[in-house]
Design brief:
The chain contains 7 helices and 7 strands. The chain is an alpha+beta fold and 206 residues long. Strands 5-6-7 form a 3-stranded antiparallel β-sheet, sandwiched between helices. It has a two-stranded antiparallel sheet with strand order 1-2.
């Protein structure tokens, strides 16, 4: 993946890539999923979709394929945006569908779980010019037995968001939290996640 000027110009939180730098796609996936780096998201999108718009089209197509009826993606990093078709948006239910696809249905589910469960990861660019390290910010992985995966998110419009999954006794639960506090309430999501997962474990069986 070669970083464009557009990718390098993305706002924080970012890896700090420079235009023309080359990275392995897998390394950037760790950057994206563990640290939510905005520049990595754009570099990946341009590499796979030809452009951010081309990649967003693929995202929207995939969302429809897996049954997301109330989702419209514009940005690959989830940043707030608007175009002629509306605003970048989704719902808790649609995010839960996406997580279910990622951990249970996708042909790449094992890699998705491997990346999102990694506690820390280090890499350099293809020319050895920069060393980077990523730390997993998914605190839920250490909170409950059977925690599988999860992804944090934040924008000024969306607030703190989290989608996580847990598996116990051959049951898998997915919880999606949106607008779960704004600064300085970053940790509301962890308490709510535990409460909702425990409710599921206590109340539901096949």
């Amino acid at each position: 993946v070669t970083a464009s000027a557009n990718a390098a110009a993305q706002p924080a939180v970012k890896l700090g890539m420079s235009q023309g730098q080359r990275f392995l796609l897998k390394d950037l996936l760790f950057s994206l999923m563990l640290e939510s780096h905005n520049d990595s998201a754009v570099a990946i999108a341009e590499h796979i979709g030809g452009s951010v718009e081309g990649f967003a089209e693929k995202m929207n197509q995939k969302a429809k394929e897996i049954g997301c009826m109330y989702t419209y993606f514009i940005t690959p990093n989830g940043l707030d945006a608007e175009d002629e078709n509306g605003i970048h948006h989704t719902t808790a239910e649609d995010l839960a569908r996406i997580m279910r696809h990622c951990i249970m249905q996708s042909g790449e589910k094992e890699m998705f779980l491997e990346i999102t469960r990694t506690s820390s990861y280090s890499f350099s660019d293809c020319d050895g010019n920069g060393n980077y390290s990523c730390t997993n910010h998914n605190a839920f992985l250490d909170m409950m037995e059977g925690a599988l995966s999860g992804k944090t998110g934040f924008t000024a419009d969306a607030g703190y968001c989290y989608v996580g999954a847990l598996s116990q006794d051959e049951r898998t639960f997915i919880v999606a939290l949106l607008a779960c506090g704004w600064p300085n309430n970053k940790n509301y999501k962890w308490a709510d996640m535990k409460t909702l997962v425990q409710y599921g474990l206590d109340q539901y069986g096949y």
